[in-house]
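Known limitations

Files may contain more than one protein. Parsers should not assume a single record per file. Below, a two-record file is shown to illustrate correct handling: read the sequence, read the token line, then continue until end of file.
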Amino acid sequence: MKLVKKSVLGVCILFLGLDLQASPAVTVHVRSEAQIAEGNVVLGAVAQIDSNDHEQRRMLENLILGESPKPGNAVVWTAAELGRRLRPYNKVLQGAQLKIPDRITIRRGEVGLTRAKLKLLIEEALRARTLPDSSWEVQVVDLQWPQPGVVQPPNGNVQVVPPLTRPRGSANLEVQFLNDGKVSKRVWVGAQVKYSAQVPYAQHAIQPGQTIQPNDVFWKKQDVTYSADNVVTQAEIGTVRSRYHILAGSSISRIQVEREPALRFGEEVTVIAGDDAFSVSTKGISQQTGFIGDLVKIRHQQGRETKMLSARVIDKGVVRVTY
């Protein structure tokens, strides 16, 4: 394929099979300097690639131009050398506009943040903050490498700030570089994420007001990335009741159910004090309506003396005194 070269302010512009007056859908702008963290020099590590086609951009980013220099070293490629390394991809780059400098300096850091490591860090951050239940899973399916070859401080580490809410398919996350325990640099990383979870389906028709028990449902693992309403988790089955009539075979979402109080105001409850090794129980009167896990007030009559206790609801009609 014939390459046409035009010099503009010291920057070489190459068009592969493209008229100079045309407006290409893909632009590849090679930088004059690049920092590499991995063993191969890929096009996305040395160039800014703009394309409306997400798959095409990702494919171009992964084109291998050669081996990286050894850690701590640098290499200089001239425009001619870079053109030679791009030539095997003429067909892939057909119609793309390329801007390359007279030369590019490629450095490889001693310690680098790799794409694979960053992916794992993001997944850990999302698990820590955004999973409502242990049966949920999250996976980073694509990563927008913000500054290819960003070097991690040799005596520091990297952390991802967890988002406040569960992302719906895409997330823009803050990555902090720490040096001696202090944040030395911040970058923002775009990621495409996928959530999957065990989703409950009704074994049979469930009536309004009915408490949903384990034998009332069966489970299917499915993609819930774009689900606007969190599904009912396995831990909630047995503690929620249906708000509406649920058809057999239909999935059960949180909007269809409500938590069933484990105790109500004025009810007699069992009050447990102590631990698993030794405990005693007595009776009390609930002063609040509460769900399992709630801290409630209990009135306890001891002889002529009435005491108010704080207790944690641990089961239906059962609380444990907290000190």
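...continuing to the second record:
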Amino acid sequence: MDAIMPKFLIEAADSCLIAVDLQERLAPAISGGDAALRKASLLLRAAARLDVPVLLTEQYPKGLGGTLPEIARLAHQAGKLEKIAFSALAEPGFRERLRALGRGQAVLLGTEAHVCVLQTGLDILSDGLALFAVADAVGSRDPADARAALRRLERAGATIVTAEMVVFEWLRRAGTQDFRHLLPYIK
């Protein structure tokens, strides 16, 4: 009997994108936040182009504001969840939304890496999904917290990737209409 081999490449048809708490009042405090937002924007554009479903969270929007306008514009069809739990999966309804997508891979980005991103990622792993944490699209107020969160996710079984890794694995090949459409956002 052949053993089932794990999937190491990220597949557009089997993944979803989870954008955690990219919010107006939190973003200015994030170390390297502008660069992380550019990478998040690239991933949201690619997800829209390649039919990768997106789930978006907002942590206590009354206090931290809504999703950044540029992110909201790119993720306009995403399922959005307001939450007070740090892990999105601990919030009623999110786990069900995630399972309803029928995807085996989750690509995770957002803020803060050591709080909501970390706890969401650990719960995703506990639920048995393959997790790809996007190192250049996550952030915390203190960069040491973000690095520690990524190390912890990796030890727990996540694969640490970059935004371009995700996009090029979703695309699989050059010379396509999708590739030509996304190339200006990569350059």
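Parsers that stop after the first record will miss the second one. For reference, the second record is described as follows. The chain has a mean pLDDT of 95.
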